[in-house]
Design goal:
Layout: E1 7-11, H1 15-27, E2 31-35, H2 38-47, E3 52-56, H3 65-76, E4 81-86, H4 91-99, E5 104-107, H5 113-151, H6 162-175, E6 181-184, H7 191-200, E7 209-213, H8 222-227, E8 228-229, E9 241-242, H9 244-247, E10 252-256, H10 263-275, E11 277-279, E12 286-288, E13 292-297, H11 301-306, H12 312-318, E14 321-324, H13 335-349, E15 356-357, H14 359-366, H15 373-387, E16 392-393, H16 408-412, H17 423-437, H18 442-449, H19 453-465
Parallel strand pairs: 1-2, 1-3, 3-4, 4-5, 6-13, 6-14, 7-10, 10-13, 15-16
Antiparallel strand pairs: 8-9, 11-12
Length: 471
C-alpha cells in the first residue's frame, strides 16, 4: 500500500497547533480531517475510518481526553495507528498510551513538533503498510494451504475398487507417521499424487513439500541438487546454494524415480537416512535435518538389487512402509469413474460442452490394456474432447490401435510385403509417438515408455545427430 494519500485525523484544542499539523500532513499528500476536542474526534471516528490519528492527550473535556480517543480508535480498528502529542507534564500518560497501543508520542513544547511529527507519521504508516502486506501474504498462504489440502486429500484420488480401498487404508495409516514410505507401481498410476496426499494429510502439512526427479537431473549435478554446495566448491558454483534436503527441513522430500540414482550417490543417501545429517559440497560443517522421505519407482526394484544397480541396504532403509499402486488393468471397475472425472475436467479446460460418453465408447475404454495406466487414459480422453464436435464422446473419438496390446505394433507399422521396419526404426517411431502423446513432456514420455529420462535424452540426441527434427 502507498504511504501517501492516507486518511489522517488530527485532534487538538489549540487552534494554532491543530492548523499547523493539518497543513503539514496535507503537504505530505494525505487526506486530513481536524477535530478541536474529544467529542468532535469521536464523531469523526464513528462516521469514518482513518489510517492514522494524531491526538493531544489533554483537552477541555479532561486531562486524559486523548486516552479516550486512543481507546475508541483501537476498539473500532486495531490496525489504525495513533500518535500522541503531549506537554512536558504528561510524559507519564504518554508512556501509558504506548502500553495501550499508541505507536509513539511527540512532545509539544520542544519547538520541533511539526518536523518530528512528519518523521513519526512516515514511520507509523510504513509499519502499517508492512503489517498489512504481511497480513495479506498470511491470508494468501492460508488459502493456498487450504487449496493444497483440498486438492491432495485422499478423496481426490479417484477409485472405489477393492484395490483402491485397500490403498486408502494404507495411506491413512502412513500419513500420520514419520516413517519413510516407498511407493512402487507402473508409470502413470499416480505415485506423485499419492506422495503429495501423504504429505498434505500428515502433521507436516504446513511445512515444505520438496520433489526431485532422480532421473531428470544430470548425473554430475544431482549430488549438488540434493545436498547443496558452497560458493567456489566446483567450476560454475558462483554462489552458495541450499540442496533439496535443507529446503525440505521439517517437511517431506520426494525422491522420484530413485531407482535411477547412481550407486555412489546411493551410499551417501544411505548415510543421510541413517544419521539424519549431511555436509554441503565444499563445506565441512554438518547440517542436521528433520525430513520425511518418500521414494518412488516404476522399476522392478528386486531385479535392480539382484543386478547390482540398487543397494539392498538402501532399499530396506527406504521400504519401511511399502505402498504398491495397482495398474489400471487391475482396477478396471474404476475406469468409468475416472473417465467421468476427466471428461468434466477437460471439457471445462478446453471450453467444450461435453455431456458424457456413449456405452459403446465406455465399453471400448474398459477393454483396453492402458499400458500407460491412468495417465494414458487421461491423455486419450483429453485428445477425444479436443477432437469432438458434438456434445458426447463416441468410439470413433478414441484411436483404435494405440491401446490394443495384441494388434498395436501391427497397426502402428506396415508389415506387408517388403516394408518391414528395422528395430531401430520401430524404436524411434515409438519414442516420437510417446513424445507427441505427452505434449513433448519428456518426463511423462519416459514414464509412458518405461525408460529413464536419461535414456530418452540420449536417444533424442542420437536422432538430432541423424538430422531428425526433434521438438
Amino acid at each position: 500500500m502507498n504511504d501517501t494519500g492516507r486518511k489522517i485525523l488530527v485532534v487538538d484544542d489549540e487552534e494554532l497547533v491543530l492548523d499547523s499539523v493539518v497543513m503539514a500532513m496535507e503537504r505530505l499528500g494525505h487526506q486530513v480531517s481536524g477535530a478541536a476536542d474529544m467529542t468532535a474526534a469521536l464523531e469523526h471516528l464513528q462516521d469514518d475510518r482513518f489510517d492514522l490519528v494524531i491526538t493531544d492527550i489533554r483537552m477541555p473535556e479532561s486531562k486524559t481526553a486523548g486516552m479516550e480517543v486512543l481507546k475508541a480508535v483501537k476498539a473500532r480498528c486495531s490496525d489504525t495507528e495513533v500518535i500522541m502529542m503531549t506537554g512536558y507534564g504528561s510524559i507519564e500518560n504518554a508512556v501509558e498510551a504506548i502500553r495501550l497501543g499508541a505507536f509513539d508520542y511527540v512532545e509539544k513544547g520542544s519547538g520541533l513538533l511539526v518536523p518530528t511529527l512528519e518523521l513519526r507519521v512516515k514511520k507509523a504508516l510504513e509499519q502499517q503498510s508492512r503489517r498489512q502486506r504481511l497480513s495479506v501474504l498470511e491470508e494468501q498462504n492460508r488459502e493456498l494451504k487450504s487449496a493444497l489440502n483440498t486438492k491432495y486429500g485422499f478423496e481426490n484420488i479417484i477409485g472405489r475398487s477393492g484395490k483402491m480401498r485397500e490403498l486408502f487404508d494404507q495411506m491413512r495409516l502412513a500419513a500420520n507417521s514419520k516413517a519413510t514410505v516407498f511407493i512402487s507401481g507402473p508409470s502413470g498410476t499416480g505415485k506423485e499424487l499419492v506422495a503429495k496426499a501423504l504429505h498434505y494429510n500428515s502433521p507436516r502439512r504446513d511445512k515444505p513439500f520438496i520433489k526431485i526427479n532422480c532421473a531428470a537431473v544430470p548425473e554430475g549435478l544431482i549430488e549438488s541438487e540434493l545436498f547443496g554446495h558452497e560458493k567456489g566448491a566446483f567450476t560454475g558454483a558462483i554462489r552458495t546454494t541450499k540442496g533439496k534436503f535443507e529446503l525440505a527441513n521439517g517437511g517431506t522430500l520426494l525422491l522420484d524415480e530413485i531407482s535411477e540414482m547412481n550407486p555412489l550417490l546411493q551410499a551417501k543417501l544411505l548415510r543421510v537416512l541413517q544419521e539424519r545429517e549431511f555436509e554441503k559440497i565444499g563445506d565441512s560443517r554438518t547440517i542436521h535435518i528433520d525430513v520425511r522421505i518418500v521414494a518412488t519407482t516404476n522399476r522392478d526394484i528386486k531385479k535392480a538389487i539382484d543386478e547390482g544397480r540398487f543397494r539392498e541396504d538402501l532399499f530396506y532403509r527406504l521400504n519401511v512402509v511399502p505402498i504398491k499402486l495397482p495398474s489400471l488393468s487391475e482396477r478396471r471397475e474404476d475406469i468409468p469413474l475416472l473417465a467421468e472425472y476427466f471428461i468434466l475436467k477437460y471439457s471445462k479446460e478446453h471450453g467444450r460442452e461435453i455431456t458424457g460418453i456413449t456405452e459403446e465408447a465406455m465399453e471400448f475404454l474398459q477393454n483396453q490394456e492402458w499400458h500407460g495406466n491412468v495417465r494414458e487414459l487421461e491423455n486419450s480422453i483429453e485428445r477425444a474432447i479436443v477432437m469432438c464436435v458434438d456434445n458426447q464422446l463416441i468410439k470413433k473419438h478414441f484411436p483404435q490401435g494405440t491401446q490394443d496390446s495384441s494388434n498395436g505394433v501391427k497397426k502402428m507399422f506396415n508389415f506387408d510385403g517388403q516394408d518391414i521396419p528395422t528395430i531401430a526404426e520401430m524404436e524411434r517411431e515409438v519414442i516420437l509417438r510417446a513424445l507427441e502423446a505427452n505434449s513433448n513432456n519428456r518426463t511423462r514420455a519416459a514414464e509412458a515408455l518405461g525408460i529413464s529420462i536419461r535414456t530418452l535424452r540420449n536417444k533424442l540426441n542420437e536422432y538430432r545427430a541423424m538430422g531428425i527434427d526433434i521438438p
